[in-house]
């Protein structure tokens, strides 16, 4: 997987633009995605489904997480999201953003 990061000045306000260009196939998983999945598997051993997608183009700046787990049973959505944030507390320090979708398995 190849990635290019570039920064430049835009306009008079000296704003910096950070671009990340990554070539990857749909079947591949970035190192960041794999790391987040591994942490979530350790923290939510009863999870029946975990999906992590780097939505920043492969830079690792923003992830979308879908996790289905019995651990969320009888918890409000905000509590479920807090559990995920706590589980990823170290990884979140290097992220720009995170989208979390949680659910309880339907039997």
From TrEMBL:
Where this protein primarily resides, as one coarse class?
A: mitochondrion
Concerning its family, UniProt says: Belongs to the BolA/IbaG family.
Q: How does it assemble?
A: Interacts with NFU1.
Please name the InterPro entries in this protein's record: BolA, BolA-like_sf, Mt_Fe-S_assembly_factor
Q: What is this protein called?
A: BolA-like protein 3
Known Pfam families for this protein?
BolA
Any single Gene Ontology cellular-component annotation: iron-sulfur cluster assembly complex
Keyword Mitochondrion in annotation: yes
* Subcellular location(s) of the protein: Mitochondrion
Concerning Gene3D superfamilies, the annotation shows: BolA-like
What biological function has been recorded for the protein in this entry? Acts as a mitochondrial iron-sulfur (Fe-S) cluster assembly factor that facilitates (Fe-S) cluster insertion into a subset of mitochondrial proteins. Probably acts together with NFU1.
């Amino acid at each position: 997987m190849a990635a290019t990061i570039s920064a430049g000045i835009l306009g008079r306000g000296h704003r910096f633009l950070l671009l990340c260009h990554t070539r990857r196939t749909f079947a591949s998983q970035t190192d960041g995605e794999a790391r987040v999945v591994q942490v979530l598997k350790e923290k939510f051993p009863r999870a029946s489904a975990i999906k992590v997608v780097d939505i920043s183009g492969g830079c690792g700046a923003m992830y979308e997480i879908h996790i289905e787990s019995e651990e969320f049973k009888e918890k409000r959505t905000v509590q479920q999201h807090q559990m995920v944030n706590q589980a990823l507390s170290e990884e979140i320090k290097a992220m720009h953003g995170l989208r979390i979708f949680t659910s309880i398995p339907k039997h």
